[in-house]
Amino acid sequence: MQNKTVFDKLGGQANIDAAVVKFYQKVLSDPSVSHYFKNTDMKKQTEMQQKFLTMAFGGPNNYKGRDMKAGHAGLGITTAAFNTIVKHLGDTLKEMGVPAEVIAEAAAVAETTRADIVEIK
């Protein structure tokens, strides 16, 4: 199968869902970024992130949340925090046995959201 999406390369919905759970375990354990989630319903956040990443990685689009700019407005997310979040995503995928080239593709997708999420350079 040629032109597989990142969604396909990651193994589909079940693997993305599992990755998001593991990813948030890392994020919430990291004091440099966990404070961004202090008033967040993490069950809802996890479900929204699973749907968003599924869509962003080329899978079915069931994401009904706000766009990235509106969803992150006023949070004061810094460049360093964004970089840390992307690193946690990469580390999660690596721990799940995802090949480095697919992790790079996933990071490139995440990178497309930087301008809408980072408020403090």
Automatic annotation (TrEMBL):
- InterPro entries per the UniProt record, alphabetical: Globin_bac-like_CS, Hemoglobin_trunc, Hemoglobin_trunc_I
Which family is it part of? Belongs to the truncated hemoglobin family. Group I subfamily.
Pfam families recorded? Bac_globin
Q: Does the record carry Metal-binding as a key word? A: yes
Q: Which domain of life is it from?
A: Eukaryota
| Stated name of the protein | Group 1 truncated hemoglobin
Presence of keyword Protein transport: no
Q: Quick one: a GO biological-process term for this protein?
A: oxygen transport
| Cofactor requirements of the protein | heme
Q: Which UniProt keywords apply?
A: Heme, Iron, Metal-binding, Oxygen transport, Transport
Q: Name one GO molecular function term.
A: oxygen binding
